[in-house]
């Protein structure tokens, strides 16, 4: 069973690159997105478009699910325009983000 899972994972590209290669691929991709974004607030200009939603879904993983990691630092230190972009999308499209992510107490 392990071989079958590994074979399927490799078919999807998982495990083909070292962690260092993954980081450099991610860094290059972030640079490309930052270049496309330029000084605009959103990829679609002043208003978010479908591409913004897709890109936010990816960048949000780096920004908030990898806190304290070098991936988050890519956005906050290397490409701060992408960190601002994430915050703009979060505030514009998901104003209830913080309240939705609060832990709930179950009784």
UniProtKB/TrEMBL annotation:
SUPFAM superfamilies: GST C-terminal domain-like. Residues 27-89 form the Metaxin glutathione S-transferase domain. Pfam families: GST_C_6. One of its GO terms (cellular component) is cytoplasm. InterPro entries: Glutathione-S-Trfase_C_sf, Metaxin_GST, Mito_Protein_Transport_Metaxin. CDD domains: GST_C_Metaxin. This is Metaxin glutathione S-transferase domain-containing protein.
């Amino acid at each position: 069973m392990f071989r079958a899972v590994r074979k399927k994972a490799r078919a999807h590209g998982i495990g083909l690159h070292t962690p260092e290669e993954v980081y450099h691929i991610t860094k290059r991709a972030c640079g490309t997105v930052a270049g496309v974004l330029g000084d605009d607030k959103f990829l679609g200009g002043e208003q978010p478009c479908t591409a913004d939603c897709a890109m936010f879904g990816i960048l949000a993983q780096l920004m908030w699910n990898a806190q304290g990691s070098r991936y988050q630092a890519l956005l906050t230190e290397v490409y701060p325009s992408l960190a601002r972009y994430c915050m703009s999308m979060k505030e514009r499209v998901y104003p209830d983000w913080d309240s939705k992510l609060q832990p709930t107490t179950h009784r």
